[in-house]
Design goal:
Length: about 450
């Protein structure tokens, strides 16, 4: 069942007011007749010409909007100077109401364009269907390139222009939830390495569980890749790295490691390099983002260590890759565990807890319960020390000076961090990142 209807009048010129009013009236009448049981939310998208007041821009539509009592409280006119701005505003309204099934009613000649905007601004969470707005196309009524028509692919330069328009709009948006904040470890020498762990502030993601500096997009979440890209651009500007030389692990919750410069595996939870200026990153939203640095051999790495990856030894697999590929000495490698779910909050079923109990009984609290509390950080430290990493070269929440602690519990600090455990399926993601300075 359609939850929302978007009527796209953006391409219709203002000098055709009577025609637009008639079109809108007929369209709303059809919606009302088809929606007698469930009235959808209706958004009318139109162009705000430069120099015009938004209110004035909407006034000529008012006659067409009168009389639709069942839709009246569920209808909004969205005016903006660009399609990107208007559609992003509509997306915000849909997300506020958790709506996902949308019918788009638009001129036939706008369909190919609109699909490109939608592909960039929405994810697979949303379902769209399209219906033609009955417009007689002529040079006066539609502001559309002459080569476009239904069934014809857009030219690559048209797609590039749309991408540019969206990016410019997103770059103009204010940061949410405060300034962008980066946590840094005192263990990693900043004269050789650039590194940090992000928090959730300073980006543009607006959905509560994703706000604001979400750094991961997936088909199951409402934040599109282009928004994540803008958040990353802002992070890169603040941190001082090149977002075009940024490599994030392809999470598989296992222990494969990618060696930069060699064939990239399909999935991997660890990544290492000795190339300068290349930023490596591992996500975390309860799972541990782990950073590795060897100031002697000038090599670094990042790993994503959830409970499965911890048991599979992803951190030592990353260390071993640095040793085998770059000749690193185990005793020179520094390891920092970033913000992650703590033993105060994290539970696993008893069968999984047994595996952590085998590593060390201190990794499990209330072992005899159905869902014991698990300390994946302690387990990671123990496995690293057993593998040859010096205890003093590992920084985690056991640090003596708590003013230096950056291994906060993500579930305990909703103002600072994302947490899958706390927030559910539509959760945001922070990262740990590291690179070798030029």
């Amino acid at each position: 069942m359609v939850e929302a209807v978007l009527i796209d009048l953006f391409s219709l010129t203002a000098n055709l007011q009577n025609k637009i009013q008639g079109l809108l009236h007929n369209t709303l009448e059809a919606i009302e007749k088809c929606s007698s049981i469930h009235a959808p939310f209706v958004y009318v998208m139109c162009c705000q010409r430069q120099g015009s007041e938004r209110k004035g821009e909407q006034e000529f539509l008012l006659p067409a909007l009168r009389g639709f009592q069942s839709l009246k409280t569920r209808m909004e006119v969205v005016c903006a100077q660009t399609t990107a701005a208007a559609l992003y505003t509509v997306k915000q309204r849909l997300d506020e109401k958790d709506l996902s099934i949308i019918k788009v009613i638009l001129p036939t000649l706008r369909k190919a364009l609109m699909k490109v905007y939608i592909d960039h601004l929405f994810t697979a969470v949303y379902q769209f269907e399209f219906e033609d707005l009955q417009v007689v196309p002529d040079s006066e009524s539609l502001q559309i390139s002459e080569h476009q028509h239904e069934g014809q692919m857009l030219l690559s330069q048209d797609v590039a222009l749309i991408q540019s328009e969206i990016q410019m709009y997103l770059e103009s948006l204010p940061s949410l939830k405060g300034e962008l904040t980066i946590l840094r470890s005192s263990l990693i020498p900043d004269d050789i390495f650039l590194h940090g762990f992000t928090t959730r502030t300073g980006g543009i993601s607006y959905i509560p569980t994703l706000s604001s500096c979400n750094l991961f997009s997936s088909c199951k979440r409402r934040d599109p890749q282009i928004v994540v890209k803008e958040n990353l651009r802002r992070l890169a500007n603040a941190a001082g790295f090149n977002p075009e030389a940024f490599h994030r692990v392809k999470v598989d919750h296992a222990n494969a490691v990618c060696i930069m410069g060699k064939t990239e595996p399909d999935n991997y939870d660890g990544i290492v390099t000795n190339q300068k200026g290349v930023t490596l990153a591992a996500p975390g939203a309860d799972c541990i983002p782990v950073l590795f640095a060897d100031p002697v051999r000038r090599a670094c790495g990042a790993a994503h260590s959830g409970w499965k990856g911890t048991l599979l030894g992803v951190s030592m697999a990353t260390v071993n890759a640095m040793v085998s590929e770059y000749g690193c000495n185990m005793k020179d490698i520094l390891v920092v565990l970033g913000p992650s779910v703590g033993p105060c909050c994290y539970k696993l079923p008893h069968e999984s807890a047994k595996e952590f109990h085998r590593i060390d009984p201190k990794c499990v609290r209330l072992f005899d319960s159905a869902s014991p509390y698990i300390d994946i950080r302690r387990a990671t430290r123990i496995l690293l020390e057993r593998g040859g990493i010096l205890p003093e070269n590992i920084q985690d929440d056991s640090i003596t000076d708590q003013n230096q602690n950056i291994t906060f519990c993500t579930a305990c600090h909703p103002d600072k961090f994302y947490s899958h455990f706390r927030d559910g399926t539509n959760f945001g993601t922070q990262i740990g990142f590291i690179s070798i300075k030029d």
